[in-house]
Design goal:
This protein is mostly beta strands. The chain contains 2 helices and 12 strands; from the N terminus they run H-E-E-E-H-E-E-E-E-E-E-E-E-E. This is DUF1207 domain-containing protein.
């Protein structure tokens, strides 16, 4: 294990979402009949990642920056949808990220001849949440009649987490016998989620939102998973707006697999960006 720990340190970093929670003041009820919908593709850009990752019982401290995250990103996709009718809403959030590292490390004999340790790290995380929401307060404030709203949400989230490290020892005569290894693996689980959100217009085309979300609560080995954010929704076009702000995210998940402890306990901080389309 010790030979490839430096690469494992680099590989296992931002398993928690490249995610941002998009919020829309436009979904406040203004007496319209029928449903109001929006969809927001978004990206969270972690400028700071700190915590601990554990694979096969080996603990690695993480202290990474934005450039580290970009260097290891293979693919990411995330989108949030909301639908409201009156004061009742439904919310879904889909997130997927794929990270990877391929590394080579020259090591001294044995085995005889030149030897190289090949390391492949496959790091993935996904979630899909479904929430019901209720808008318990909304109205207007100030002489300009700007709108505000507060809502709560409750539901469930399915999570998928993969931390898999493959190693093989190669020499100038081929792969050394018995020197291939796979560590870690993947886990999936359900957990409850609750949320609180406040929104307020601050100009005819600009709104501010704050959101707190918590999940896990010890269910299925996830002690806690939380999101806090503050952001702006700028609407330069009738059916489209741009979102930007700051977000914090944390997760504390721990279980055991056949090769030892499997855990992820990190916190992330950074800006987020999104584009909202309304229907």
């Amino acid at each position: 294990m010790s030979a490839f720990r430096p690469y494992l340190f680099i590989a296992i970093l931002i398993l928690a979402p490249f995610s941002a929670q998009a919020d829309s003041i436009d979904l406040i009820d203004r007496g319209e009949e029928g449903w109001r919908f929006d969809i927001t593709p978004y990206a969270f850009l972690p400028a700071s990642i700190e915590g601990t990752s554990v694979v096969a019982g080996s603990e690695l401290k993480l202290d990474l920056d934005f450039q580290d995250a970009l260097d290891l990103l293979d693919f990411a996709f995330s989108a949030r949808t909301e639908g409201w009718k009156g004061n009742f809403g439904v919310i879904s959030d889909l997130y997927y990220i794929d990270l990877g590292v391929d590394a080579e490390l020259e090591i001294p004999p044995p085995p005889p001849g030149e030897a190289t340790l090949f390391i492949d790290a496959d790091i993935r995380q996904a979630w899909l949440s479904a929430l019901g929401a209720y808008r318990f307060a909304h109205g207007e404030y100030g002489s300009n009649g700007y709108r505000y709203a507060w809502d709560v949400s409750l539901g469930a989230r399915w999570n998928y987490l993969k931390q898999e490290i493959r190693t093989r020892l190669g020499t100038d005569i081929g792969i050394a016998d018995g020197q291939q290894q796979k560590l870690g693996g993947s886990e999936s689980w359900w957990e409850p989620v609750i949320g609180l959100r406040g929104m307020a217009e601050i100009s005819p085309c600009l709104a501010m939102a704050i959101r707190l979300e918590a999940g896990g609560f010890g269910v299925n080995d996830d002690e806690r998973q939380w999101i806090g954010l503050i952001g702006l929704d700028w609407r330069p076009w009738e059916h489209t707006s741009l979102k930007f702000g700051a977000q914090a995210y944390g997760i504390d998940y721990e279980t055991r697999k056949s090769d030892g402890e499997f855990a992820y306990d990190i916190e992330q901080y950074g800006p987020y960006l999104g584009v909202t389309l309304r229907f």
